[in-house]
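hiii so um. not sure if this is the right channel but i have a protein structure encoded as tokens and i wanna go backwards to a sequence. like what aa goes where. can anyone help
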């Protein structure tokens, strides 16, 4: 196993002082897990970009009254939310995906929750809150990016633990240090 050049460690250490701010609004890559409240709804809603979401592994029996995907400021305010995507009545899903372009002028900004919403009743068939993806660079899991994450990464690397295999090629090489540094720089 190769040891890490001291000069690279020095570089990484310098970078560690610049901790990016945590994102506050739903951003690309954030996901919401739909709870199952009615009509067999479940799935994972992914923020593709500012104006596009996608429901993966989507299950819904296609029944109800006027069924739409709704965005809400939180899971308690879909009644004052907005409808996006097609009419889902008569559109059963059994594990497929549904990509939704948000209406003109609407971005995901400020819409923290998503529901499969029966407009007429009104009632939620399943809902979830958008969450940031797990932050791999936060090696010690304290929710912040600090020098201790670099040290934790180095410890895993030196121990031969594949938790440090950041480029996923099954080996521990200098490229894992570079991949770690990139994710650290990108922030969480
Ligand atoms: Ca940390
Ligand atoms: Ca690797």
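sure thing!! here u go:
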């Amino acid at each position: 196993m190769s040891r890490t050049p001291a000069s690279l460690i020095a570089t990484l250490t310098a970078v560690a002082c610049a901790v990016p701010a945590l994102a506050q609004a739903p951003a690309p890559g954030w996901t919401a897990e739909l709870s199952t409240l009615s009509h067999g709804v479940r799935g994972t809603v992914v923020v593709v970009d500012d104006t596009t979401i996608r429901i993966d592994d989507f299950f819904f029996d296609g029944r109800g009254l006027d069924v739409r995907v709704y965005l809400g400021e939180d899971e308690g305010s879909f009644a004052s939310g907005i409808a996006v995507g097609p009419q889902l009545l008569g559109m059963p899903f059994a594990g497929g995906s549904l990509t939704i372009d948000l209406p003109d002028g609407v971005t995901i900004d400020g819409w923290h929750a998503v529901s499969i919403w029966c407009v007429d009743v009104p009632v939620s068939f399943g809902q979830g809150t958008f969450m940031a993806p797990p932050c791999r660079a936060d090696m010690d899991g304290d929710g912040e990016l600090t020098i201790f994450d670099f040290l934790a990464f180095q410890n895993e690397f030196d121990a031969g633990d594949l938790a440090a295999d950041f480029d996923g090629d099954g080996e521990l090489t200098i490229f894992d240090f570079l991949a770690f540094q990139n994710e650290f720089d990108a922030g969480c």
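oh and The CA atoms of residues 139 and 152 lie 6 Å apart.
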